[in-house]
């Protein structure tokens, strides 16, 4: 019983498949030496973008049939057209950016960096001076205070033979 249900469920699909395959006409391929599409194959690089999608598909199918023959029998135009359709700069392999785009990007980045430098310089001209604790004199006084208080006697300023800068950070 389940086989009959499965068959009845698939029968609409089979009828659609029968109609679709029955109406498809086989494409006969002849050499481009006598074919009417020889001008299209001869200049496929220039005319590919202007061809409608249906004609592009027909050319693709024609080239697919031609490639099944011996490659020594194909003309140079047919070989070039087959290579272009398979690997040419169209569809997903089309270049994303036009020539000179890298120069525009470099110029834009340079302008952005210069603008950021200008904003930083402008902000620094109106900023407050550094606090008095950042002066070298104050930091030297902090070193002396640390020695007097014997702060960090193992590795710090008050250790024996210490040769570091201590708290001095400013120049």
State the gist of this model.
With 171 residues, the chain is mainly α. It contains seven helices and no strands.
Describe the protein's topology.
Layout: H1 2-23, H2 38-42, H3 44-47, H4 53-67, H5 76-87, H6 101-125, H7 136-149
Helix pairs in contact: 4-5
Family: Belongs to the cytochrome c oxidase IV family.
Subcellular location: Mitochondrion inner membrane
Keywords: Membrane, Mitochondrion, Mitochondrion inner membrane, Oxidoreductase, Transit peptide, Transmembrane, Transmembrane helix
Strands, count: 0
> What percentage of residues falls in helices of 4 or more residues?
55-70%
- Proportion of residues in β-strands: under 5%
The DSSP helix count reads 7
- List low-confidence stretches: 1-34
Order of helices and strands: HHHHHHH
Looking at the chains present, what oligomeric state does this protein adopt?
A: single chain
Q: Which descriptor suits the 3D outline? A: elongated
What structural class results from the helix and strand content?
mainly alpha
On the 0-100 scale, what is the average pLDDT? 78
The largest sheet, given as strand count, sense and whether it forms a barrel, is:
none
Distance between the termini: 95 Å
Radius of gyration over all CA atoms, rounded: 40 Å
